[in-house]
Design brief:
With 111 residues, the chain is mostly beta strands. The chain has one helix at 71-78; strands at residues 12-15, 28-29, 31-43, 46-53, 61-62, 84-85, 99-100, 103-104. Strands 1-3-4-5 form a 4-stranded antiparallel beta sheet. The chain has a two-stranded antiparallel sheet with strand order 2-6.
């Protein structure tokens, strides 16, 4: 198995875009990003390297199994475009007063 080069804090890497329906506050537009944390954690029962980037704080990327393998592809796609957080406001899918199946919803919001 090929050894994966582990990035260091302040190294530039590329991250992909991620847009979420249920937690839009974590949305990010992909591009070049700056590593601000490197750590080991478990994924699929194995110890792997995760990285976090300045442009998408608090979100770990599995470097060992996924992101390291996509660097050339992401570099071609994004070139010098910088990654950036692009959060949506998280709101319930159904709130009191919404019309659901022909009836007005009464009660707590449904996430």
């Amino acid at each position: 198995m090929k050894k994966v080069k582990i990035p260091k804090v302040s190294d530039p890497i590329y991250v992909d875009s991620h847009y979420y329906i249920s937690h839009g506050s974590d949305d990010v537009s992909g591009g070049k990003a700056t590593v601000n944390k490197v750590y080991t954690s478990i994924s699929g029962g194995k110890n792997v390297i995760f990285v976090e980037v300045h442009e998408h704080p608090g979100n770990g990327y599995n470097w060992t199994e996924f992101l390291s393998k996509k660097q050339n592809e992401l570099k071609k796609e994004f070139k010098n475009i910088r990654a950036e957080a692009c959060p949506d406001i998280d709101t319930p899918w159904i709130e009191e007063g919404d019309l659901v199946n022909g009836k007005i919803h009464k009660g707590s919001p449904i996430w």
